[in-house]
Automatic annotation (TrEMBL):
Belongs to the FAD-dependent oxidoreductase family. Residues 321-377 form the Rubredoxin binding domain. Residues 5-282 form the FAD/NAD(P)-binding domain. This is Flavorubredoxin reductase [(Nitric oxide reductase)reductase]. One of its GO terms (cellular component) is cytoplasm. Pfam families: Pyr_redox_2, Rbx_binding. GO terms for molecular function: oxidoreductase activity. It comes from the Bacteria. Its cofactor is FAD. It is found in: Cytoplasm. Keywords: Cytoplasm, FAD, Flavoprotein, NAD, Oxidoreductase. The keyword Cytoplasm applies.
Length: 379
């Protein structure tokens, strides 16, 4: 009997690929292996759910048993893969070995820890990168409402806004001189900061956390500037790092992510990678739409068709209640932002040296213009 196609991971990428494969081939043997319980959920909606105090089980779209039955797949949960034996086409697990014909790594990304964080309670810093993280953070919020969020990017701003609107006292710290420094120009970032402050968030830029110590009844935080204040919880929102250990240990090419070609293949013709763990020409998968597009391409490739990844427009949305943000990030090229404020929003466009529109950021009452501006990109 031929060895099955094995997908490592049951996150957004793993399950997107499962769905895409079953649209093409209903009968091919498929095995998914995951280190968690295999429940399907929307990872990108965790911050909003936390603000609404949604119970963890309310986020589960389908259990592992339901996914296995619905898509005719074998899903092995709570497995711990130690290494890939490329010579024997086997995964070496703590629980035994499992053969594969073709292998897809969909291992996702882990929340980035703060490497310089010191103190007696440094291990108590929390993250929000999985359903398990969500369940733990939600339980820790019970009866405690002083929360410090470290990281003023998209994830940190959205988390701070949702926590503040659920009656938490929130401090948002960002080491850069503005929020969303890698995403928005100055005026737009300032408008986001104002919206967060209006929601009750204390915004502190050009500062971070150097120590977190356990006091008698609370955490004691010390910022890089030497400011000390009490808190109940510290949540790290400094981004994510692709999980590449299995690929690296197997001798596959790894840069920031697992290096794949536009057909999602690695240097091993039988191993592929998809999702937040992978990169194509230095570009990482960051958005749900990108992962879905990649899954469609890879499903066809695995079924013998020739396809190449075509990136969808990178539209990122920040769900701040009083100031929604839609961003189409410009590519890394020379140009400049042009911003114009309205009474209830900001319109920012990025033009290259020829004057062509290459990206935009829309805030508040300007977000409705996103689709029209998408059609003007490159002109």
């Amino acid at each position: 009997m031929n060895a099955p196609l094995v997908i490592v991971g049951t996150g957004a990428a793993g399950y997107a690929l499962l769905r895409a494969l079953r649209q093409i081939d209903r009968d091919r043997p498929l095995v998914l292996i995951t280190r968690d319980d295999g429940a399907a959920y929307e990872k990108f909606h965790l911050a909003r759910a936390l603000g609404a105090r949604t119970r963890p089980r309310g986020l589960v779209l389908a259990t592992v048993e339901q996914m296995a039955h619905r898509y005719g797949a074998t899903i092995l949960a709570h497995r711990h893969i130690l290494r890939i034996d490329r010579l024997r086409h086997e995964l070496v697990m703590r629980e035994g070995r499992h053969g594969y014909g073709q292998l897809v790594l969909a291992t996702g990304a882990a929340a980035l820890r703060e490497p310089g964080l010191r103190g007696t309670a440094a291990s108590q810093a929390l993250t929000l990168g999985s359903l398990a993280d969500y369940a733990y953070l939600r339980s820790e919020l019970a009866g405690r409402n002083r929360v410090v969020v470290l990281g003023g990017g998209l994830a940190g701003c959205e988390l701070a806004d949702n926590l503040a609107r659920s009656s938490c006292h929130v401090t948002l710290l960002e080491p850069a001189n503005q929020l969303l420094a890698e995403t928005l120009p100055a005026l737009s970032a300032a408008r986001v900061a104002q919206a967060l402050q209006a929601a009750g968030v204390q915004v502190m830029t050009e500062d971070g956390i150097q120590r977190i110590d356990q006091g008698p009844d609370e955490l004691e935080l010390t910022t890089l500037a030497g400011v000390r204040f009490p808190a109940d919880l510290l949540v790290l929102a400094r981004g994510v790092v692709p999980r590449t250990e299995l690929a690296r240990d197997a001798g596959l090419a790894v840069a920031r992510g697992i290096v794949v070609d536009p057909a999602l293949g690695t240097v091993d013709p039988d191993i592929f990678a998809l999702g937040e763990c992978a990169e194509i020409d230095g570009r990482l998968f960051r958005l749900a739409e990108e992962i879905e597009a990649g899954a469609q391409v890879l499903a066809e490739v695995l079924c013998g068709r020739k396809r190449r990844m075509r990136w969808p427009a990178r539209l990122r949305r920040l769900q701040i209640e009083s100031c929604p943000v839609t961003v189409c990030e410009p590519p890394p090229l020379a140009g400049e932002w042009h911003e114009a404020a309205t009474q209830r929003g900001v319109r920012a466009v990025f033009r290259d040296r020829r004057g062509a529109l290459r990206g935009f950021a829309l805030l508040g009452d300007q977000v409705a213009a996103a689709e029209r501006l998408l059609g003007e990109l490159g002109r």
